């Protein structure tokens, strides 16, 4: 038999799926995969249900329903002061992962270098490689997740076509500072580089901070594409509705890639997301406030048990150091121990690095009901207490 595509042949199953399967097998509380355990606002779901029955349920326009494209443009203006033409600068996709694929396939040619900041969301590497791109990695490292500015400068060259940046960042819960974003913008302008900005957690920023899109920095409007996610913004991850905003000159080839990947996204879901994006400010502040409370609840509980809880400025995730807890020699062993013996699933942070990863940190997801968080903490407490008693 002739070989299949080496990018995908033999690739490991995503760590999220692996840990979710282990959680099911051990009847564990699943704090590994990043999705809420309750559905999003009922009024948004009601709009989708009504639109499904009322129809039409045929192909919507390839770029997305005009109402949703207008809503995305309006949101860009409302939250960030960005003037966006909904007719030529917005496209709807079947989730943010599809949007990432469309952008990479349209903008990156074989041999082009793409700067990536690791730890990486796991789809980035295979998508860059399938586009023929050459990944150039710059690392941020726990516990501070500080960006090595000189390493970033060295990553850019005449071969660099794009930088793919996740801000706010999964799995680190890092929000890039204004000065870090300014450096990225300066390097993009200096080297004539595109910026592909995965900003799906844009509304999940805590402690009164505000998201700063790279698109808003000087010189970046014409070279940046920005990706958003209704799944994250409305806690409806199963809907897989994303959207891309960018200059018309870049959106044209991105739309050509989109037409051969999914072509369209369910029209009833698009209509409902358009309704959701028009919700008043109290919804968006309430979402961030609710997650802040859950973050604090879990962080306090984990710290009391001896985990070293790292700062969390955004997203769904807490990263914790495991030194001194006796859970295993590595983060992978620690997660296997916790899911098997404590009944709680987490994710090893080393899974988000390509090589030479730090192995002393694991990630918990806190976008869960309070009773689920409390149950997980109770299980961890019972396990760690018993384990310490045996060791005494």
Biggest sheet statistics: 7 strands, mixed
* Name of the CATH superfamily of the largest domain: Type I PLP-dependent aspartate aminotransferase-like (Major domain)
Tell me the number of helical segments per DSSP (H or I, 4 or more residues long).
13
> What portion of the residues fall into strands of 2 or more residues?
5-15%
Oligomeric category: single chain
Total number of distinct structural domains = 2
Helix/strand-derived category reads alpha/beta
Distance between the amino and carboxyl termini: 58 Å
Share of helix among residues? 40-55%
CATH architecture label of the largest domain: 3-Layer(aba) Sandwich
CA-based shape: globular
The ordered H/E elements are HEHHEHEHEHEHEEHEHHHEEHEEEH
- Give unreliable regions as ranges: none
Q: Based on DSSP secondary structure assignment, what is the total number of beta strands?
A: 13
Query: Which fold does the CATH topology of the largest domain refer to?
Result: Aspartate Aminotransferase, domain 2
The top-level CATH class of the largest domain is Alpha Beta
Order of adjacent strands in the largest pleated sheet? 2-8-7-6-5-3-4
Look at the structure and give the mean pLDDT. Answer: 96
The value of Rg in angstroms is: 21 Å
């Amino acid at each position: 038999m002739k070989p299949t595509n080496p990018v995908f042949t033999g690739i490991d199953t995503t760590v999220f799926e692996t840990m979710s399967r282990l959680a099911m097998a051990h009847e564990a509380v699943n704090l590994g995969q990043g999705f809420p355990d309750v559905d999003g606002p009922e009024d948004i779901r009601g709009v989708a249900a009504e639109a499904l029955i009322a129809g039409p349920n045929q192909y919507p326009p390839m770029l997305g329903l005009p109402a949703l494209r207008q809503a995305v443009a309006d949101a860009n203006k409302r939250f960030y002061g960005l003037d966006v033409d909904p007719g030529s600068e917005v496209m709807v996709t079947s989730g943010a992962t599809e949007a990432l694929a469309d952008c990479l396939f349209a903008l990156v040619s074989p041999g082009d270098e793409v700067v990536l900041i690791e730890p990486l969301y796991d789809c980035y590497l295979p998508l860059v490689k399938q586009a023929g791109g050459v990944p150039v990695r710059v690392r941020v490292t726990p516990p501070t997740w500080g960006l090595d500015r000189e390493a970033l400068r060295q990553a850019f060259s005449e071969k660099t076509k794009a930088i793919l940046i996740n801000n706010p960042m999964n799995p680190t819960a890092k929000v890039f500072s204004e000065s870090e974003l300014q450096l990225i913008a300066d390097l993009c302008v200096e080297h004539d580089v595109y910026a592909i900005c995965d900003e799906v957690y844009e509304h999940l920023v805590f402690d009164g901070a505000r998201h700063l899109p790279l698109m808003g920095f000087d010189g970046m409007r014409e070279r940046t594409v920005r990706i958003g996610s209704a799944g994250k913004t409305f806690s409806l991850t199963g809907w897989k509705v994303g959207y891309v905003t960018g200059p018309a000159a870049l959106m044209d080839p991105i739309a050509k890639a989109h037409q051969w990947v999914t072509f369209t996204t369910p029209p009833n879901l698009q209509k409902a997301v358009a309704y959701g994006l028009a919700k008043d400010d109290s919804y968006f502040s309430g979402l961030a406030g609710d997650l802040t409370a859950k973050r604090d609840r879990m962080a306090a509980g984990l710290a009391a048990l001896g985990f070293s809880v790292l700062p969390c400025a955004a997203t769904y995730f807490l990263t914790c150091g495991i030194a001194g807890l006796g859970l295993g020699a590595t983060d992978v062993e620690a997660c296997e121990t916790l899911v098997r013996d404590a009944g709680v699933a987490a994710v090893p942070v080393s899974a988000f690095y390509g090589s030479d990863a730090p192995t002393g940190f694991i990630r918990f997801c806190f976008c869960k009901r309070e009773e689920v968080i409390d149950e997980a903490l109770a299980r961890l407490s019972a396990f760690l207490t018993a384990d310490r008693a045996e060791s005494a």
